[in-house]
Amino acid sequence: MKIGFIGIGNMGSxxxxxxxxxxxxxGDGLLLFNRSPEKAETVAGECNATVExxxxxxxxxxxxxxxxxxxxxxxxVMPEIAKSFTADKLFVSIAAGITIEYLESxxxxxxxxxxxxxxxxxxxxLGVTAMVRNKNVNDADFEAVKKVFExxxxxxxxTEDLISAVIGVSGSxxxxxxxxxxxxxxxxxxxxxxxKTSREFAAQAVKGAAQMVLSxxxxxxxxxxxxxxxxxxTIEAVTKLKELGFEDITKSGAEAAIERSKEMSRK
Length: 267
What we know:
The chain has about 270 residues and is of the alpha/beta class. It is built from 12 helices and 8 strands. The protein has helices at about 10-25, 35-45, 55-60, 75-85, 100-105, 140-150, 165-170, 175-190, 195-215, 220-225, 235-245, 245-265; strands spanning about 1-5, 30-35, 50, 65, 90-95, 110-115, 125-135, 155. The chain has an 8-stranded mixed β-sheet, with helices on both faces. Helix 3 crosses helix 4 and helix 7 (about 165-170) packs across helix 12 (about 245-265). The protein starts with a strand and ends with a helix.
């Protein structure tokens, strides 16, 4: 199976790098095209992939086409893809706000389309990807695409009306988490830690806490209570964060991402 990627930005390159080792093991060929050829050549060299000369050439050669460009570029790229796209191929979008209905309007009602919402930790095998398929995608097709994303983390199938919720919870949330880690690092440095130690300790603590949530049946709030000894340091921090509205602020940020996604989907 030949898998083609159009657009090698941050997310596209993360997916490619996350899947590269698995692709070699599965015997899949990776095809790349990017409007900046230097980026394509760099990633191709790292991932044993082939660089195609253009969008149409890649679509003709690939069995599965991943479009990894920003939503604002779809109006220009989709007509190019449609010229060579046939109903036996699979089309995969990773863009926020681009609906299956919009994609079908370019590729046809018989096109096999999967809409996804991944996040960048997929590059390190810790990604989260939500997947939606249209009526033309059978289980075998779906599993073939799922394999690409599972090489870089966990996946889950949802209905299209829930994609915006996924964006707020996992698609955009690495950014809020980086802000939180950065604040911890700065607090450590201000208290005397060297930047490298503070960075490693803060990031590992967040990674460990996330693993605790994944491996436990308890609610995060219960896990929080367990480490809050009366009169201790942790409860002091938690009390201050609650006073400042930490949980409400975080929830509001996720809701802002969700609402923006819905606005984009209405355009």
